[in-house]
# Entry
Amino acid sequence: METPNSLTATEAAKRIEAGTLTSEALVASCIERIDAREDVVGAWKAFDRDLALKQARARDAGPRRGPIQGIPFGVKDIIDTMDLPTGYGSPIYEGHQPAANAPCVQISLDSGGVLMGKTVSTEFASRHPGKTTNPHNPGHTPGGSSSGSGAAVADMMVPLAVGTQTGGSVIRPAAYCGCVGYKPSYGLIAGYGVKENTRSFDTIGLYARDLDDIALFRAGILGLPHEPLAGASLHGLRVGLCRTMMWDRASAATQERLESTAAALAKAGAQVTDFPLEGPFAGFEEAGKTVSGFEFTRALAYERAHHLDKMSEAIRTIVIEPGVLVTFAEYQRALATLAACRAWLTDAMADFDLLLTPSAPDEAPEGLSHTGDACFNILATWTYSPAVTLPVHTGPKGLPIGMQLVGRRGGDMSLLAMAKAAFPVLAENGMK
Amino acid sequence: METPNSLTATEAAKRIEAGTLTSEALVASCIERIDAREDVVGAWKAFDRDLALKQARARDAGPRRGPIQGIPFGVKDIIDTMDLPTGYGSPIYEGHQPAANAPCVQISLDSGGVLMGKTVSTEFASRHPGKTTNPHNPGHTPGGSSSGSGAAVADMMVPLAVGTQTGGSVIRPAAYCGCVGYKPSYGLIAGYGVKENTRSFDTIGLYARDLDDIALFRAGILGLPHEPLAGASLHGLRVGLCRTMMWDRASAATQERLESTAAALAKAGAQVTDFPLEGPFAGFEEAGKTVSGFEFTRALAYERAHHLDKMSEAIRTIVIEPGVLVTFAEYQRALATLAACRAWLTDAMADFDLLLTPSAPDEAPEGLSHTGDACFNILATWTYSPAVTLPVHTGPKGLPIGMQLVGRRGGDMSLLAMAKAAFPVLAENGMK
# Structure
């Protein structure tokens, strides 16, 4: 039997507005799912059922606030909330209680949303994992750093969640867990009250189970009127097949599924042509690591000075130790390289509507000590381009494999509309 | 008799390193100045003499940490500090105690600095003023929003201070109070832990009384080795005389002094030619206001939802009321206009080393209810270009008039070196 927790946010919002579903019943159904599954999945860092139900009842009793009226959402635990502690994924901040809601949380509440809880983040949205497992197989990573947000939405504990991406931290968990992830153009969603990793890259992103829900939540978190996605046709769509410089890091299964996806788009009428990354992209990955090293070590200055002993071995040796060695001249050169890559991509995409590229190298790797490789996500993140991942394939281990669509910087709504048109076609084509 | 508080940071650092001055004596001297003048100037929001002296003694006893070893600095009260409350210029946050130091504070401490206290900010770095007066005449505004930082440094209460600029909030207080203000290229100094006004524009800046001190503090706050400023020659320097679209808002005294400054630079061998702002700059001011309206109302979402009654009439009617009306389409168009202005300026500055432009329309206006007009500061802020103001003139009311130099984006060190070469020439030429 269909339970409210399995509804899309769009459908639930429609029923709430029509009076055939209450926010309280929806939230209670999500809580039931969490109760049943949380022991295995471990998606939540802070979860207060009474607070969630209280908000839901207030939404049911109060006037309509906005497009996500009565809909519960999860928030990555590097984002400040006034009613729930915010731990930034670190023992340094265990029990830390911010004074205020981050704007992205407050605006979502002002749009009618119900804060369901805080979802597990890796330590400071970096490498060291939290407790979350992959909802399809608890022996495998859910991906990171927005581990809990990706797992909670995929596991139907909540229809919507907020994450952040500095490398691949929104798209990868969505791909590994099997839901839709949306990494907007850089700067779209207000970033105050979000613990910084690398300011030049940090981007707030969204999780849902379909594209209409992404558009709905996008309106809610931006404080804008909801505009349902326009219809888009795959016929004549100019798709760049972008294998990236990382192609040899993709598994055979991922390579095969990318080619199959390209073929399915072509069969549906799209013009699919190769889109190699050239010119300044030779130095792209190195430049991004340099920028991240310089900025991360500074963003965490307080924690390094006062609590280095409470920081993980991974963050100390893999992130901070090389980061502190980056010189200002290297940082400036790296910023210039990335700016050149952005300009190159803008020019190169003039004749393309979107790029098709892997969401991750493979299915979610086995083990929980490492959240996987962001190598296929940095293209969109560091060029400030919008990206979505669609859960359309299954790999040989029975875990989801997502396909990533990347749009033009600022062309988010257009990308979402194209992704909506592509989703059923690609799902139909999905390989197992 | 010369007292340590009147030393430049560079000279004080030299003496501390040589063992002829202690940090404790320097800090004690600054405290003495604050005790003598704070009743009139009102530069400080939070000031704890014991904490400052304790840090100074620890610097004297401990190993050398970095370039600003033992030097006290003030921090604008919209920037988080773990040992002093941080009020963001608003009664909403009276007594608010952040858990951590903002990176810019922590890195300055790690570089040997002594946190002297928190300097007065206008409400959320917006329009509504704090208690600070102009150190040259308490009946006049010190400018804002970094009112306390500008006044404290100009009044020799502290040699260095941190401010932030979204419109003209670093340069204008420096110009009004009569010290050097430096607004770096956008994004230079780590911005986490700083209450946001408009993320697309917010820039951390520095106050000192000469250019060497700016370079010294810049190294300290960035966690970089100190490189003294290179020598620069005014001979052959290509200076664009930029009256901007706001020329008719400048007083006769300011106009006269700008022309006189241009003549002095030409006499010293610079090639001074007119630099009109054209093309997309027709829509520049309007676009910036649109961006600020959209972002500010979202950055303050929590305060608007929970504490609107504690927000000033000015912020509610002049900032928030129009801000909430900005549509997403208008915001996107405004961002595009500003991007076009940046590109236009980059091209137009290819043949120029720097621009000369007013720092403010006039001397500090009379009265404390309004901190003055940022119209001559938005050029540098919104185009992400570095700028300095030099206190080289006095106006008819006996108050300082600064002259502003604007460099190429990313060319901060070059701008500071040119400004250092120009400062004595322009001061010599200074009109009274």
Observations:
- The CA atoms of residues 65 and 112 of chain A lie 5 Å apart.
